[in-house]
Specification:
16 helices, five-stranded mixed barrel, BirA Bifunctional Protein, domain 2, OB fold (Dihydrolipoamide Acetyltransferase, E2P), eight-stranded mixed sheet, alpha+beta
């Protein structure tokens, strides 16, 4: 059936060409958007002033020697009226070969129908693009997410709420930029292709650069390069960009995602907690009009201040396990298995502690909270409290999502090397997410002197999902990663 419809449209395309008309011209006579025409409708109608609009035909209705249609651009929709007496034979023949889905431009005067519909009486029009496939009569994709994500262009075209969600996402990123710029930060760019994978615990994507005959990694985080820039004399910098992690996919994970990281010299994580409350709550208010939002039926309140809970104590309060008292990987694994928490495949004390936290604490959090002071194994790049196995780190968690990860940065090169050597041991034991080698250039940069730094990273997609009531990250990423479709 679809092949027949396509062939019928190709036949119409050829008829248009036979008329000597280019069905895909490079330019249009559009002078204004539809929303502008509607806003000044009474003025144009009173003056009988001709206007030129352009867009996609989304509906057509034949009435004898006249045709009503709906023209839509990205600002709105308006009814247009073709009257046979107003068009020459060539243009009427062209109109007979126009289908729903085609792009046209149309000029004419405005009038109001007897039913009160604001309408353009077309005096001339041109085809801008002939569509060969029909638009869905009814948006079937709402019931089939695979189709919606694969054919996002149809999803956006037929579902206004989806398009509004992505407009709001863009506004969120714009707000982040404006607030950081206002605070005196400088936006920078660092390499996406990196010789070493570092900056976070994740399995990287590997590629190969033919020109230099070397393997490279898609960055899992911009952290290591941004801190090199602090060594180079910048004091307040940020980057918004794509990061890539070769990990599982679920409602809060996608292999490529948008990360915002900033670094602030001469500040610590305590300062950043107050700044984070101010920054994120202000964005929530600017985007939604208040500090409370609805997410999947649950109310989330971003009103500051937010509670602060110790990572270690919150676990103990939730399940009775004191991870610092257990101290060893073997004892912690045994305690988790007694609780029925699977530990297979988890390598190292830090991975075990993090899984215990996720299962007993994080999934139960609704309103934003700070989870602070993590075991040193969970913060290889973070500064530890003197004489303790705890690092000065916090996470912002809301609705079970980790939105922000931040800490006082470790700036002692000798201690940093010890931490990275421990990561290498984890790699040998089977931790695929641990780095395969030490970033010697980063260590050398630290040896030239690195000031105290507060570092901050946010998963933009997760934050945007909360503010747009998106049930998963795939709903807030325009083109989420999909398995290749097999066509029979």
């Amino acid at each position: 059936m679809l092949n027949k419809i396509k062939q019928d449209r190709i036949d119409k395309l050829n008829k248009i060409i036979d008329l000597g008309i280019d069905p895909y011209p490079a330019s249009s006579s559009r002078a204004r958007k539809i929303e502008n025409a509607l806003a000044d409708f009474e003025m144009f109608e009173k003056r009988s002033e001709a206007i030129a609009l352009a867009g996609r035909i989304v509906a057509m209705r034949l009435h004898g020697g006249s045709i009503f249609a709906n023209l839509k651009d990205d600002s709105g929709s308006i009814q247009i009226y073709f009257k046979k007496d107003n068009l020459n034979d060539k243009k009427w023949t062209l109109l007979e070969n126009i289908d729903i889905g085609d792009f046209i431009d149309a000029s004419g005067t405005l009038f109001t129908t007897k039913r009160g519909e604001k309408t353009v009486l077309v005096s001339d029009f041109n085809i801008l693009s002939k569509s060969l496939l029909p638009l869905p009569d009814k948006w079937y994709g709402l019931e089939d997410k695979e189709i919606r994500f694969r054919k996002r262009y149809l999803d956006l075209l037929m579902n206004k709420d989806v398009k509004e969600r992505f407009i709001k996402r863009s506004k969120i990123i714009k707000e982040l930029r404006q607030l950081l710029d206002k605070e005196g930060f400088l936006e920078v760019e660092t390499p996406i292709l990196q010789p070493l994978a570092g900056g976070a615990a994740a399995t990287p994507f590997v590629t190969h650069l033919n020109a230099l005959d070397m393997d490279l990694y898609l960055r899992i985080a911009p952290e290591m390069y941004l801190k090199r820039l602090i060594v180079g004399g910048f004091e307040k910098i940020y980057e918004i960009g794509r990061c890539f992690r070769n990990e599982g996919m679920d409602r809060s994970h996608n292999p490529d995602f948008t990360m915002l990281e900033f670094y602030w010299a001469y500040k610590d994580y305590n300062f950043l907690m107050e700044f984070t409350e101010k920054l994120l709550s202000q964005i929530v208010k600017n985007i939604t009009g208040g500090y409370k939002i609805k997410y999947q039926g649950e109310e989330i309140d971003f009103t500051a201040p937010w509670p602060r809970f110790s990572f270690v104590k919150s676990i103990k309060d939730a399940c009775g396990v004191d991870i610092l008292e257990l101290a060893s990987e073997e004892k912690l694994r045994g305690a988790m298995e007694k609780l029925g928490i699977k530990t297979k495949g988890l390598v190292g004390f830090g991975k075990l502690a993090d899984e215990l936290y996720k299962e007993t604490v994080r999934k139960k959090i609704t309103n934003p909270v700070f989870i602070v002071d993590h075991p040193i194994q969970l913060g290889p790049l973070a500064k530890a409290y003197k004489g303790k196995r705890i690092v000065q780190r916090f996470q912002v968690v809301a609705n079970g999502f980790e939105i922000v990860n931040a800490y006082s940065e470790l700036n002692d090169p000798i201690e940093q090397r010890k931490r990275l050597e421990y990561q290498l041991e984890l790699k040998k034991k089977g931790d695929d997410e641990a780095p395969a080698e030490i970033d010697e250039d980063y260590i050398e940069a630290m040896e030239y002197g690195m000031p105290p730094i507060a570092g901050w990273g946010m998963g933009v997609d997760r934050f945007a999902a909360l503010l747009t009531d998106a049930p998963s990250l795939r709903e807030i990423i325009l083109f989420p990663t999909m398995k290749t479709e097999t066509k029979s």
